[in-house]
């Protein structure tokens, strides 16, 4: 989905590609790029390009989601619910599996 949209709209492609962090692997960037594109329309005013503040919010949420998926970071329940809902349908290649401290302690009992 993301690749097709980027091919159709060079302006969106330029904006989104400019959001890639130099530390992101291709695998991580493809997933976060898909997250950004899937949610971009929700962070645009009707008939206008996105405002800087709205785009900053979307980028921050995409980083929260990416950190959760690829590094196992945890955030408050409301934030996690929001980003997981926003990521519905995003395909992730070889997502790592993390064990929480609570799971480890439970296994040791």
Structural features, described:
This protein is 62% helix and 0% strand. It is an all-alpha fold and 109 residues long. The radius of gyration is 16 Å and the shape is elongated. The N and C termini lie far apart (46 Å).
In brief, what are we looking at here?
By secondary structure, the chain is mainly α. It contains 6 helices and no strands. The mean pLDDT is 84.
Keywords:
single chain, 109 residues, 6 helices
Task: Quickly give the structural class.
Answer: mainly alpha
- Fraction of helical residues: 55-70%
DSSP strand tally: 0
- Poorly predicted runs are none
Cα separation of the termini = 46 Å
- What percent of residues are in strands? under 5%
Radius of gyration: 16 Å
Give the overall average pLDDT.
Answer: 84
Q: What is the string of helix and strand elements?
A: HHHHHH
What is the secondary structure topology, with strand pairs?
Elements: H1 2-8, H2 10-17, H3 26-40, H4 52-71, H5 77-86, H6 101-108
Helix pairs in contact: 1-2, 3-4
């Amino acid at each position: 989905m993301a690749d097709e949209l980027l091919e159709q709209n060079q302006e969106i492609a330029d904006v989104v590609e400019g959001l890639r962090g130099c530390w992101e692997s291709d695998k991580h960037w493809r997933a976060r790029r898909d997250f950004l594109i899937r949610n971009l329309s929700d962070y645009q005013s009707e008939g206008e390009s996105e405002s800087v503040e709205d785009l900053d919010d979307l980028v921050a949420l995409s980083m929260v989601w990416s950190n959760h998926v690829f590094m196992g970071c945890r955030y408050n329940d409301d934030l996690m619910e929001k980003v997981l809902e926003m990521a519905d349908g995003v395909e992730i290649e070889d997502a790592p599996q993390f064990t929480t401290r609570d799971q480890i302690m439970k296994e040791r009992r």
